């Protein structure tokens, strides 16, 4: 006899219990990812604030380079460090002087942009870890619930056929399984979908900020006549 949704898990049919078990695993994985990404993006946001303060307080490329070496590792600092390192490789000793007599060639400037874009892409991919699983869980869980609905209704019809009647005692267990799996699928999917869209929006904002910082780096080189 099914008196509560939990009874479906313990006393339901094997297909229904399997579906609920899969949804339970999805839910656990989803919440682990939600908490992990929340903490990660919060840390990145704090790092971005400190990085902006360092950029605004720097009087030039040399000051910015020194400030970045004092900051903790972050996506923003890594992009700038890679840009500065590549620029130094192109023009050895250029960072030590206040002016650069010989500017970068168009090919070298394009190469510098490619290095910055490559690092931007790597940081975006790094920050996107776990997002794919949130999207998968958010899209698959309702389908798992729908499968449970179909299984539950099929069990109701099988019960009617075996008992030769359609009284409530025969139909109720299958309907209970159908509704329970539907609710479970939605309960797993809704937080995952909300989290995915929220985090995707924040990631787009971070990537936009990174692109802006990369442009600011090139602008700083231009202002100091290093290009």
TrEMBL record:
Major location category of this protein: membrane
Annotated signal sequence is: none
**MotA/TolQ/ExbB proton channel domain span:** 106-211
Q: Which GO terms describe its biological process?
A: protein import
Q: Can you list the GO cellular component terms from the UniProt entry?
A: plasma membrane
Note the InterPro entries from the entry.
ExbB/TolQ_transport, MotA_ExbB_proton_chnl
Keyword flag Transmembrane helix: yes
Record field: transmembrane: 18-36, 133-158, 178-196
Compartments reported by the entry: Cell membrane
Per the record, membrane topology reads: Multi-pass membrane protein
What keywords would UniProt list here? Cell membrane, Membrane, Transmembrane, Transmembrane helix
Q: Which family does it belong to?
A: Belongs to the ExbB/TolQ family.
Q: What is this protein called?
A: MotA/TolQ/ExbB proton channel domain-containing protein
Origin species: marine metagenome
């Amino acid at each position: 006899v099914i008196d509560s949704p939990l009874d479906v898990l313990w006393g339901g049919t094997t297909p229904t219990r399997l579906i609920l078990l899969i949804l339970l695993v999805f839910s656990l994985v989803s919440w682990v990812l939600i908490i992990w990404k929340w903490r990660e993006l919060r840390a990145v946001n704090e790092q971005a604030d400190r990085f902006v303060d360092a950029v605004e307080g720097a009087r030039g490329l040399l000051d910015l380079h020194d400030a970045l070496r004092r900051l903790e590792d972050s996506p923003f600092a890594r992009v700038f460090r890679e840009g500065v390192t590549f620029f130094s490789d192109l023009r050895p000793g250029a960072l030590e002087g206040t002016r650069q007599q010989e500017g970068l060639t168009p090919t070298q400037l394009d190469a510098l942009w490619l290095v910055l874009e490559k690092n931007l892409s790597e940081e975006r991919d790094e920050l996107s870890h776990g997002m794919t699983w949130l999207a998968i869980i958010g899209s698959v869980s309702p389908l798992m619930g729908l499968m449970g609905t179909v299984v539950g209704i099929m069990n109701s019809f099988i019960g009617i056929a075996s008992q030769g009647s359609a009284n409530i005692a025969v139909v109720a267990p299958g309907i209970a399984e159908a509704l329970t799996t539907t609710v479970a699928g939605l309960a797993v999917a809704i937080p995952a979908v909300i989290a995915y869209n929220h985090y995707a929006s924040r990631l787009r904002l971070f990537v936009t900020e990174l692109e802006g910082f990369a442009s600011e780096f090139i602008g700083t080189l231009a202002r100091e006549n290093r290009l």
